[in-house]
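Not sure how to ask, but would you mind making up any protein sequence you like and the tokens describing how it folds?
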Amino acid sequence: MNHASLPADWIGGWQSIAQRIAIVDRTRTLTYGELASIVFAAARLLRSQGLQPGDRVALILDSSWQYVACYFAVLLAGGVVVPLNPAARDRDLGSWILHAEATCAIAEHSYAGLAALRAVLPAGCRLNVCGGEGDLLVSPQYAAADRGEFPPASAQAPATILFTSGTTGAPKGVLLSQGNLGANAAAIVDSLALSADDSVMGVLPFTYAYGNSVLLSHLSCGARVVIQRGFGFPQAVVESMVRERVTGFAGVPSTFTLLLSRVQLNDFDLSDLRYVSQAGGAMPSALLKRLVSL
């Protein structure tokens, strides 16, 4: 695969690595071929519902295989992904959806705030669900979609709106293009020398810029993403890292603080781990020294 291309174009390339594992989630493991089929079908369904190029689609989903499939389905259909934290307050979700001018929202059917979400959706904003009745990702009638019906993406086409953390004021939506996402993924792939033989433990929320970058950079080169929802039980995460033989781990300073304070890392065989990356703030020098000394 050419990781320097655009995210909406990667999906077609996934057919050349159809048998490789793309996503390992607690409920499902997907090959690249399976992921591509789901994405194409969901993209065609979104188009049939009236999604137009440039329309904004809010994803109110935890990090999961469903999130990944919906993210790329929106991109393939020409939409703009607006990832939102499902743990946010109802009124904040409503405000962000309104600010982004989203015409569609996607949530998990078991999402505890689903009824409240329906109440705060702006007029004209359609709600789709993953799982349960009307599952967006189970669309047999669209499974045989003509993949040629989706034109190649433009580098200048808007791809996603990521909201800032709001530390200095109200969160602001930052618009990134297909070219922005592709360039970031390519830079990370080159910097870490990523290849299809790599796999990363994904503990960072995909709704944030860093987690989004980790996800896209690995899927751009045919690597494997092992999804861990949350970091409340660090030892379980490390056990999964050993079991899945991951080669990479990404975190923020607090991630490594929890990891080093709650887990005896020397008790685990992490010989497959090739790279560790950190962002989201400066790591204290004492913490860095402890990490490097392992």
